[in-house]
Amino acid sequence: MSSGETHKTCDALKTSEHDAPESENLLEKAPTVFLEYSDCLFLTIISTLRSMSNESLKRKQSAEDTDNKRECVLKIVTWNINRQKQIKIQDAVNRLSQSHPDVIFLQETCIGVGQKIELVGWTAFYTQYNNKEKGAAILVKNKQQLKFKLYNQEVDRNGRYVVVQCELLGRCYTLVCMYNHQKDTKTLDLLSPFLQTMTVGTLVIGGDFNTTFSLNDRAKIVPPSTDLLRYREEETGKKQKNPQHQKTKTIVARFTRSLQLADVFRRNKMEKSDGSIDQTWFTYRMNKKVTKTVNGKQTKSDETILSRLDYFFMPEEYMNSVVDCCVLEINDNDHSPLLLKLDSAPLREEKQVETQHEWEAKDQKRINAVEIVAAIQSLQLRDIVKRDDKLSSYKKLQAEEIDDLKWDYNQYLQLDETARQNKRNYKKLDPEKFKTADHDKHHYFFKVEYLILATILLWRLEDWGQKGKTNRKKTQSETPKHSLALRSKDCLLKTDIEWTQLKRCIEQKLQGHPFVTDFDILEEMLDRGTTPEKRMLRKGCPLTHILPKLHQKYNRQEYHLEEEFFTDEEESDSDEYDPSSYDESD
Questions:
Q1: How far is CA 131 from the centre of its chain?
Q2: Roughly what angle, to the nearest 10 degrees, separates helices 499-509 and 547-554?
Q3: pLDDT tens-digit map of 464-510
Q4: Is 336 helix (H, G, I), strand (E, B) or coil?
Q5: How high does pLDDT run on average in the chain?
Q6: Is this model's pTM higher than 0.90 or not?
Q7: Distances 47 to 7, 51, 53, 481 between C-alpha atoms, Å
Q8: Residue 102 in domain
Q9: Is the pLDDT of residue 203 over 50?
Q10: Are the beta carbons of 516 and 506 closer than 8 angstroms?
Q11: CATH number, domain at 79?
Q12: Does residue 39 share a domain with residue 187?
């Protein structure tokens, strides 16, 4: 029976009682009619539900695709918060909440030793240096969708950078937060070797670099006008240049060239617009009063100086991951935040990272891998005795080797003298032979692990702290009584210095630095001299050059210099230098 006949039969069932014979006839057919009608109705309902289900699935799939796209976009913000303390750090995070960042780079955090960044909902990696200057921090949002996994972190003891190697949204990243002080000429050169060899996944560098790269990066506004006055359009026709910017620019340009880095904001801005410049181009704003002479009269006026000092840098091969890069409008600080959006879809060819040691966010290590890699690359094979081939192995810069060495150095510096002799605490370093050295007529040949640590301590002595004041005034005619130049090719020059005096000189050189105690290890690293209170400096050690100079500069007492001559017979009798053989009567 067709559906038309079914409806007709159903209508017939509703006829009046005077059609009884016909009604009785229909009642006899009712069971069959109702069954066929039910089947038809069921099929109609099923068809309707099926079409609704398909539409729902399509909407759900579209929503899932949108969510997947949204989840694969990683948002990173960099912001110089201008020496704001911890309560201001929380305030800064709150102000950025409207942009929903996943990762935040902060500069000039000014977190001193013993202070902490404790933010609800965030994992913080940060420097502890001084509560009045410098400081860098990387904050990672604690949310399940990010799938955050920490591989490694490198925190600078001088408050200049933080490096976090991690996994976010299923993709590996090396995140670098950088505060490049305008007078700092060495930190970027220190970072470059590490990032060239130890970067995992996508490299993202962000921070305040305190320089500009072109005339488009500087402008000013002269009230009452609100128009931008670019420096190349000034009436004088002269290019206004900040000398310090020019010096820093050379250093930053060398750094970006060594890693083939692209200026993300400039590239994104130029590609998505006509290249015109407005106030959204700049990240730094400074108001100042300017005195000008017009027709022989001096007038004062207000000016607003605009600069682009904050940057995101990424390697060229990863620029296709950039979704957007823009300046956020937060104008109550001299620096404005810079937002970077990245397509963080996992890469098929990306390798999984394996770590030997579990580093936690709270770990603040005394020696980091950035310094270790730079020190290894600076050492020459000729500086090592031929039978010690460890430097060749270290020169390959395998992550496992560097990680083990970092572990050993921090164990060596943190443990007491008794615990240092326990070989079970170390992976690569032999505490019993750490400071032993072979020698010939001209040099001592130290263990490679000793040279790496000595080189790191040398660089810190050169870079850390202020110049300080000496204990006495020098005259132009004054010349040192003892020259420290190693003149003779046939002699070994040894410098015998009182440890307490040397320690006092180091403290004066690094006056005010929170980690001056890191150099206490020198008391054990340097061999004993003529008395237990003195320490011996030997030719071939990187520290032999700088420590006597510090002693001479900050202490009036003269050195005790000795020259020891080795004969062929003496060289054949002993392979290692024995401090007890040193005799003042030689």
A1: 20
A2: 80
A3: 875 444 444 444 444 344 433 333 333 445 677 889 888 989 988 88
A4: coil
A5: 75
A6: no
A7: 19, 6, 10, 105
A8: yes
A9: yes
A10: yes
A11: 3.60.10.10
A12: no
Sheet containing 218-221: give its strands across. 229-230, 218-221, 297-307, 284-294
Cβ contact 492:570 at 8 Å: no
Q: Return the closest-CA partner of residue 240 out of 290, 313, 171.
A: 290
Same domain membership, residue 390 and residue 325:
no
On whether both 50 and 76 belong to a single domain, the answer is: no
- Look-up of token digits 């200049």: 160
Q: Is 412 helix (H, G, I), strand (E, B) or coil?
A: helix
**Helix%, strand%, coil% for the chain, nearest 5:** 40, 25, 35
| CB atoms inside a 10 Å sphere around CB 200 | 18
Q: Running DSSP on this structure, what letter comes out for residue 160?
A: S
Residues 203 and 101 in one domain: yes
Same domain, 9 and 23: yes
Residue with the larger pLDDT of the pair 437 and 227: 437
pLDDT of 267 over the 60 cut: yes
Residue-wise pLDDT tens digits, 279-294: 678 888 887 776 676 6
Q: Is residue 46 part of a domain?
A: yes
Of 49, 68, 87, the residue that ends a domain is 68
Domains identified in the chain, total number: 3
| CA atoms 220, 222, 226, 232: torsion sign | negative
Structure tokens of 294?
């017009």
Tokens of 238: 């002269």
* Same-domain pairing of 426 and 313: no
The angle at the Cα of 218, spanning 213 to 223, to the nearest 5 degrees, equals: 180
More confident residue, 544 or 271: 544
For residue 21, what are the domain limits? 3-68
* pLDDT tens-digit map of 319-343: 999 999 999 988 778 899 999 999 9
Task: Decide which of 36, 68, 100 is a domain's last residue.
Answer: 68
571 versus 386: the higher-pLDDT residue is 386
φ/ψ (deg, to 5) at 316? -55, -40
Same domain membership, residue 397 and residue 440: yes
What CA–CA distance (Å, rounded) separates 140 from 76?
9
* 257 and 204 belong to one structural domain: yes
Are 23 and 15 in contact by the 8 Å Cβ rule? The answer is: yes
Query: Tokens 């759900």 identify what position?
Result: 60
Domain assignment of residue 238, yes or no: no
Q: Structure tokens of 488?
A: 């003779």
Query: For position 498, what pLDDT does the model report?
Result: 86
Neighbours of 305 (CB within 10 A): 16
Residue 300 lies in a domain: no
Q: pLDDT digits over 430-440, tens only?
A: 887 888 888 77
d(CA 139, CA 177): 10
- The beta strand positions in 333-463, using DSSP E, are 338-343, 437-439, 444-446
**Inter-residue long-range contacts of 294-301, CB under 8 Å, 24+ positions, other chains counted:** 301/222, 301/223
pLDDT reported for residue 25: 55
* Residue pLDDT, tens place only, 360-374: 555 567 899 999 999
